[in-house]
Amino acid sequence: MTIHVEIVAPDKTLFSGDVQMVTLPGMDGQMGVMGGHAPLLTTLGIGEIVLHGANETEFLAVSGGVVEVRPNKVTILADVAEAADEIDEERAQAALARAQQSLADNPPAEHRAPLLESVRRSSLRLRVARKRRRAPRAQFQSSEE
Fold it and tell me: pTM for the complete prediction?
Protein backbone atom coordinates (compact mmCIF):
# COMPACT_ATOMS: atom_id res chain seq x y z
CA MET A 1 0.00 0.00 0.00
CA THR A 2 1.35 3.42 -0.93
CA ILE A 3 0.65 6.84 0.49
CA HIS A 4 0.62 10.15 -1.37
CA VAL A 5 3.11 12.72 -0.05
CA GLU A 6 3.27 16.43 -0.79
CA ILE A 7 6.16 18.49 0.52
CA VAL A 8 5.76 22.24 0.12
CA ALA A 9 8.15 25.01 1.16
CA PRO A 10 7.28 28.72 0.97
CA ASP A 11 8.93 29.08 -2.43
CA LYS A 12 8.08 25.77 -4.17
CA THR A 13 6.72 22.25 -4.11
CA LEU A 14 9.63 19.89 -3.48
CA PHE A 15 7.79 16.61 -3.92
CA SER A 16 4.39 15.31 -4.86
CA GLY A 17 4.04 11.58 -5.40
CA ASP A 18 3.35 8.15 -3.99
CA VAL A 19 5.76 6.34 -1.66
CA GLN A 20 5.77 3.21 0.44
CA MET A 21 6.64 5.13 3.63
CA VAL A 22 7.82 8.55 4.74
CA THR A 23 9.88 9.22 7.85
CA LEU A 24 10.09 12.72 9.24
CA PRO A 25 11.38 14.64 12.25
CA GLY A 26 8.59 15.29 14.70
CA MET A 27 9.25 17.54 17.67
CA ASP A 28 9.53 14.46 19.90
CA GLY A 29 11.64 12.38 17.53
CA GLN A 30 11.62 10.64 14.17
CA MET A 31 8.30 9.15 13.07
CA GLY A 32 7.27 6.90 10.20
CA VAL A 33 4.02 7.07 8.23
CA MET A 34 2.57 4.49 5.88
CA GLY A 35 -0.76 4.19 4.07
CA GLY A 36 -3.68 3.73 6.43
CA HIS A 37 -2.07 5.78 9.23
CA ALA A 38 -4.40 7.36 11.78
CA PRO A 39 -5.07 11.09 11.24
CA LEU A 40 -2.48 13.31 12.89
CA LEU A 41 -1.44 16.97 12.93
CA THR A 42 1.97 17.79 14.37
CA THR A 43 4.93 20.13 14.06
CA LEU A 44 8.26 19.37 12.44
CA GLY A 45 11.63 19.82 14.02
CA ILE A 46 15.00 20.17 12.35
CA GLY A 47 15.86 16.92 10.66
CA GLU A 48 15.65 14.62 7.71
CA ILE A 49 12.65 13.58 5.67
CA VAL A 50 13.15 10.20 4.02
CA LEU A 51 10.88 9.10 1.19
CA HIS A 52 10.94 5.31 0.90
CA GLY A 53 9.92 4.00 -2.52
CA ALA A 54 9.71 0.39 -3.61
CA ASN A 55 13.35 0.44 -4.80
CA GLU A 56 14.48 3.99 -4.13
CA THR A 57 15.05 6.35 -1.25
CA GLU A 58 15.13 10.14 -1.39
CA PHE A 59 16.40 12.47 1.34
CA LEU A 60 15.42 16.03 2.19
CA ALA A 61 16.58 18.43 4.90
CA VAL A 62 13.81 20.27 6.74
CA SER A 63 13.80 22.97 9.41
CA GLY A 64 10.42 23.40 11.03
CA GLY A 65 6.89 23.36 9.73
CA VAL A 66 3.77 21.29 10.14
CA VAL A 67 2.60 17.93 8.88
CA GLU A 68 -0.93 16.66 8.39
CA VAL A 69 -1.36 12.91 8.11
CA ARG A 70 -4.49 11.32 6.71
CA PRO A 71 -4.89 7.62 5.90
CA ASN A 72 -4.09 8.14 2.21
CA LYS A 73 -2.07 11.39 2.19
CA VAL A 74 0.70 13.23 4.04
CA THR A 75 0.99 16.99 3.56
CA ILE A 76 4.18 18.62 4.79
CA LEU A 77 4.28 22.41 4.95
CA ALA A 78 7.94 23.12 5.68
CA ASP A 79 9.34 26.40 6.91
CA VAL A 80 12.60 25.55 5.09
CA ALA A 81 13.29 22.40 3.05
CA GLU A 82 15.87 21.25 0.52
CA ALA A 83 16.19 18.08 -1.49
CA ALA A 84 19.60 16.40 -1.29
CA ASP A 85 20.45 17.29 -4.88
CA GLU A 86 19.80 21.00 -4.20
CA ILE A 87 22.31 21.27 -1.36
CA ASP A 88 25.76 22.65 -2.15
CA GLU A 89 28.00 20.46 -0.01
CA GLU A 90 30.90 22.94 0.00
CA ARG A 91 28.65 25.80 1.18
CA ALA A 92 27.14 23.57 3.88
CA GLN A 93 30.64 22.60 5.07
CA ALA A 94 31.74 26.25 5.13
CA ALA A 95 28.62 27.29 7.09
CA LEU A 96 29.25 24.51 9.60
CA ALA A 97 32.88 25.55 10.04
CA ARG A 98 31.88 29.22 10.57
CA ALA A 99 29.25 28.31 13.17
CA GLN A 100 31.61 25.96 14.99
CA GLN A 101 34.34 28.61 15.03
CA SER A 102 31.90 31.20 16.38
CA LEU A 103 30.95 28.81 19.18
CA ALA A 104 34.62 28.09 19.92
CA ASP A 105 35.18 31.84 20.35
CA ASN A 106 33.02 31.65 23.51
CA PRO A 107 30.26 34.10 22.55
CA PRO A 108 27.93 35.74 25.08
CA ALA A 109 25.16 33.47 26.34
CA GLU A 110 22.44 35.18 24.28
CA HIS A 111 24.34 34.34 21.05
CA ARG A 112 24.89 30.64 21.82
CA ALA A 113 21.38 29.33 21.03
CA PRO A 114 21.29 30.74 17.46
CA LEU A 115 24.81 29.44 16.85
CA LEU A 116 23.85 25.97 18.11
CA GLU A 117 20.83 26.00 15.75
CA SER A 118 23.14 27.00 12.91
CA VAL A 119 25.48 24.10 13.69
CA ARG A 120 22.51 21.73 13.78
CA ARG A 121 21.07 22.96 10.45
CA SER A 122 24.46 22.98 8.71
CA SER A 123 25.26 19.48 9.97
CA LEU A 124 21.88 18.24 8.73
CA ARG A 125 22.35 19.81 5.29
CA LEU A 126 25.82 18.28 5.01
CA ARG A 127 24.59 14.83 6.08
CA VAL A 128 21.71 14.90 3.58
CA ALA A 129 23.96 16.15 0.75
CA ARG A 130 26.42 13.31 1.38
CA LYS A 131 23.64 10.75 1.18
CA ARG A 132 22.92 11.98 -2.35
CA ARG A 133 26.38 10.80 -3.43
CA ARG A 134 25.71 7.29 -2.13
CA ALA A 135 22.30 6.87 -3.74
CA PRO A 136 21.06 8.30 -7.04
CA ARG A 137 18.00 10.53 -6.92
CA ALA A 138 14.84 8.50 -6.64
CA GLN A 139 12.42 8.31 -9.53
CA PHE A 140 9.09 8.15 -7.75
CA GLN A 141 5.77 8.28 -9.52
CA SER A 142 4.80 11.93 -9.36
CA SER A 143 1.30 13.24 -9.77
CA GLU A 144 2.71 16.35 -11.47
CA GLU A 145 4.00 14.44 -14.53
Answer: 0.80
Q: Which helix (H) or strand (E) holds 5?
A: strand 3-9
3-state secondary structure of 65: strand
Q: Where are the domains of the chain?
A: 1-145
By the 10 Å C-beta count (0-12 exposed, 13-18 middle, 19+ buried), 93 is classed as middle
Query: Which class would CATH give 1-145?
Result: mainly beta
Closest CA to 14 of 22, 5, 23: 5
Confidence at residue 145, expressed as pLDDT on a 0 to 100 scale: 40
Model pLDDT, residue 133: 60
Phi, psi of 30 (to 5 degrees): -70, 140
Collapsing DSSP to helix, strand or coil, 41 comes out as strand
Which of 17, 129, 5, 18 shows the shortest CA–CA distance to 70? 5
